[in-house]
Design a protein that fits this description.
Helix content is about 10%, strand content about 35%. The longest helix has 9 residues. Strands 1, 5, 6, 7, 8, 11, 12 and 13 form an 8-stranded mixed β-sheet that branches. A 5-stranded antiparallel β-sheet has the order 2-3-4-10-9. With about 200 residues, the protein is mainly β. The chain has a single domain, classed as Sandwich (Immunoglobulin-like), CATH 2.60.40.
Length: about 200
């Protein structure tokens, strides 16, 4: 089980990422994908979940500029999580490309997903590109999670189930990369049965 540490707010998280202190490495390459270095980090402050992901590719695709657009066709990094896995099957999917365009939906499966209201304004999205990598850093307020999953408390010891991904269906680098392995024959990230457990410290 992965432990999500509690820290003193977004500024503290940004400092960790600026120093390259990523705790997670996505190391599963399903569906015949070529290896690609992708790092991630998670933390919380009791009111927000902080997410950072970094993909080491020199020429990422970023054609989508509007939120809720088809960012998965670009180079894309994604965080899917179920906030109340023991009570309901619903999960969030947060997807973003190197331009910082986001998709953040909620539902019980791939189809019929609902847009998460107000998310772009509260995400604090920072999308960064260098010669060696591109990176996303953002936050998800617990209050926003509760709008869809009111049972979520965010208390110490709370368990969520989640997975983290990199894809790029029309990018020069099309590799699929995951944190937890996915056992399907064809590419499919909307598979909560393959989410892994994470605990809020």
């Amino acid at each position: 089980m992965i432990t999500i540490p509690k820290i003193a707010g977004r500024a503290a998280f940004d400092r960790r990422i600026a120093e390259g202190l990523f705790k997670l490495r996505l190391s599963n390459f399903p569906w015949g994908s070529q290896p690609l270095k992708v790092l991630a980090d998670l933390a919380h402050d009791g009111e927000h979940l902080f997410v950072a992901m970094r993909s080491y590719e020199s020429n990422p695709r970023a054609t989508v500029t509007e939120n809720e657009g088809p960012v998965h066709f670009d180079s894309c990094m994604e965080f899917f999580f179920s906030p109340c896995p023991e009570l309901r099957p619903d999960y969030f999917n947060m997807e973003a490309n190197p331009a910082g365009a986001m998709k953040f939906n909620y539902g019980a499966g791939r189809h019929g997903r609902l847009k998460t209201r107000g998310f772009p304004e509260v995400a604090g999205m920072q999308a960064t590109r260098t010669a060696d990598y591109w990176q996303l850093v953002y936050q998800i307020p617990f209050a926003l999670i509760r709008e869809n999953a009111p049972e979520f408390t965010g208390a110490s010891g709370s368990i969520i189930r989640a997975n983290m991904y990199r894809c790029g269906e029309q990018a020069a680098c099309t590799s699929f990369v995951t944190l937890f392995p996915i056992g399907t024959e064809k590419p499919d990230y909307h598979r909560p049965e393959y989410f892994g457990e994470m605990m809020l410290a």
